[in-house]
Specification:
- The chain has 185 residues and is α+β, with helices and mostly antiparallel strands.
- Helices cover 16% and strands 35% of the residues.
- The chain has a single domain, classed as VC0467-like (3-Layer(aba) Sandwich).
- Strands 1, 2, 3, 4, 5, 6, 7, 8 and 9 form a 9-stranded mixed β-sheet that branches.
- A hairpin with a 2-residue loop joins strand 2 and strand 3.
């Protein structure tokens, strides 16, 4: 049985308490979700480290907080950049959803677009093998929720998990108030 619904361009929001510390209270933006697996980046784990020197041309374009983010535990040396662009140049980016895509950081900014409107750079990514994410979804480890462009470039990533849940309303908004340690409830 294959993927019944692709969650590409959606948010994966960890249900509390997710026992894997890599993903506890994370918000992940899914870049791809097919029968072959899924790839995403964690939106709410700023690293508070400067970008490596080879990214000097991009650092002034990074959205606040202008730091690298931990995209996930897979290939932590890989750098993935998501951007909103005006006047994107063909071949310089790969569109994920309307208005958002990944860009090639080896190019100069003027080779990518007329203007970079927002930029977030991630160290590493989150990955799942064939149907692994679908199994985790069936177990209830994740909630799949609509993404807003502002989520990817959120200037307050420490509160993003709660913010995304609160805007859902109803019972999901209640989950936003769950204590970090459920035994203290």
């Amino acid at each position: 049985m294959g993927v019944t619904f692709s969650s590409k361009g959606m948010l994966l929001v960890a249900t509390p308490p997710l026992t894997d510390p890599n993903f506890d209270r994370t918000v992940i933006y899914l870049l791809e979700h097919t029968d072959d697996g899924a790839v995403g980046v964690v939106l709410n784990r700023p690293l508070m480290e400067d970008a490596p020197g080879e990214l000097y041309a991009w650092t002034h374009l990074m959205s606040e907080p202008s730091t690298l983010f931990a995209g996930g535990p897979v290939d932590e040396e890989a750098l993935i950049a998501l951007a909103r662009l005006e006047g994107a140049i063909d071949g310089s980016w790969s569109q994920v959803t309307d208005g958002l895509g990944s860009i090639d950081l080896m190019l100069d900014p003027d080779e990518v677009a007329q203007q970079v409107l927002a930029l977030r750079v991630f160290r590493g990514y989150s990955g799942w093998g064939p149907l692994q994410l679908d199994d985790e979804l069936a177990e209830g480890s994740w909630m799949v929720l609509p993404a807003e462009l502002s989520d990817v470039f959120c200037d307050d990533p420490d509160h993003l998990w709660r913010t995304v849940l609160r805007r859902q309303g109803g019972r999901l908004a209640w989950v936003a108030n769950a204590p970090d340690d459920l035994s203290s409830n």
